[in-house]
Design brief:
Layout lengths: L6 E8 L13 E8 L10 E6 L10 H11 L8 E7 L5 H6 L1 H7 L5 H12 L8 E7 L1 H9 L11 E4 L6 H6 L1 H16 L4 E2 L2 H9 L9 H11 E3 L7 E3 L3 H7 L4 H13 L5 E6 L7 H6 L11 E5 L6 H4 L1 H12 L17
Parallel strand pairs: 3-4, 3-5, 5-6, 6-10, 10-11
Antiparallel strand pairs: 1-2, 2-4, 7-9, 8-9
Helix pairs in contact: 1-14, 4-5, 5-11, 7-10, 8-9
């Protein structure tokens, strides 16, 4: 759905060797690169990196990316978009299709540590050498970016955006354990029992647009879900199905350790680069006490800003993509035009 004025390339790369898979068999990540004829000439512009929430896919960002290119294109060169990238988690979207057999054999889900490892390796690749990087992560995607900071001596980013972040402090999670586990069980059960097959993509579109939560989305976001989140079923008689399995998505929610560990990193990272929190105005997935804890200056959470998108909830990217892009644009304009990426890699902060 990206604008015809944007050039879109599909890329794939392999997760580096790790404890999660046998040597040389790291899971694949699929990504898209967005540029325009003019943007590639601007070597001093911003390269924006997008990661999605659980249950979504890299194309959820298409509307936002197109809007950001338009909003920034008339500004001074340091604030324009040089290029944008969006990434599928290894068990979501196109990556889920590429890794289907490997995921079936290993029987577990893809940890956010595994996604962060892949993202870190990509950030260090020649494709992004010398770029002024701005990661923007939605929900679990925000945690993934925060985890990447531990692969470098200092974060190689000029700013970082955490959108409806699920990062949370362990002590607060444990204090509210009963409530959080009840909500977790609800989300897992809802995911496992969700419809996952339709006769056609048009039938799926009609299904989503009439049912909560999708009926609350911008209709363009529903179309992106249908066009990029579904594919032909292996059994052609069954029409179309989700690219990522319900079981993989459901298993991702109880994996709370990465979110809690990331809270420790946030207090360190926000001392080094501007970190912006963006919330939907409507409180849903993250209660107010968890939201507030991420900007608690008495606990070292000295974030650069906290923004709220009107009439949106946890799925702010899908519900209000234009308003969300406008909120991001305002903060992109605050990045120092002289800020340069860090070249340090290896040691932790």
């Amino acid at each position: 759905m990206a604008s015809s004025t944007l050039h879109v390339e599909l890329h794939t790369f392999q997760t580096p060797d790790s404890e999660y898979m046998p040597k040389g068999q790291g899971l694949w990540v699929s990504a898209k690169r967005y540029t325009s004829e003019e943007s590639v000439k601007n070597k001093g512009g911003l390269t924006v990196l997008f990661t999605h929430c659980n249950g979504s896919h890299k194309e959820q960002w298409d509307i936002v990316i197109e809007k950001l290119f338009r909003l920034q294109q008339t500004k001074a060169e340091p604030y324009r978009i040089r290029e944008a990238w969006s990434f599928d988690r290894q068990n979501h979207g196109d990556a889920a299709v590429l890794n289907a057999q490997a995921l079936f054999r290993r029987k577990d889900t893809v940890s956010l540590y595994e996604w962060a490892l892949a993202l870190s390796s990509f950030v260090q690749s020649p494709l992004l050498q010398g770029h002024r990087l701005v990661p923007i992560g939605h929900s679990a995607g925000a945690t993934a970016w925060m985890l990447t900071t531990q692969h470098f001596k200092s974060p190689p980013y000029v700013s970082l955006f955490l959108v409806e972040s699920t990062i949370n402090k362990k002590e607060i999670f444990e204090r509210e354990l009963e409530e959080r586990m009840q909500y977790m069980d609800f989300i897992v059960n809802m995911t496992l029992n969700r419809k996952y097959q339709w006769d056609s993509k048009e039938k799926a579109f009609e299904y989503f647009r009439k049912r909560i939560p999708w009926s609350m989305w911008d209709e363009r976001a529903i179309r992106l879900l249908v066009d990029y989140g579904l594919h032909d079923s292996p059994d052609y008689r069954r029409g179309v199905t989700l690219k990522g399995t319900r079981e993989q998505e459901a298993a991702s929610y109880p994996d709370t350790k990465p979110h809690q560990e990331s809270a420790l990193y946030l207090s360190q990272v926000c001392k080094v680069i501007p970190v912006h929190l963006v919330w939907g105005e409507r409180i849903e997935f993250m209660p107010e006490y968890l939201r507030d804890s991420l900007s608690d200056t008495s606990d070292g959470m000295n974030v650069a800003s906290v923004s709220y998108v009107k009439d949106a909830g946890h799925m702010v990217v899908q519900e209000k993509p234009d308003s969300f892009a406008e909120a991001i644009s305002v903060k992109l304009d605050t990045i120092s035009p002289s800020s340069l990426p860090s070249s340090g890699i290896g040691a932790k902060l």
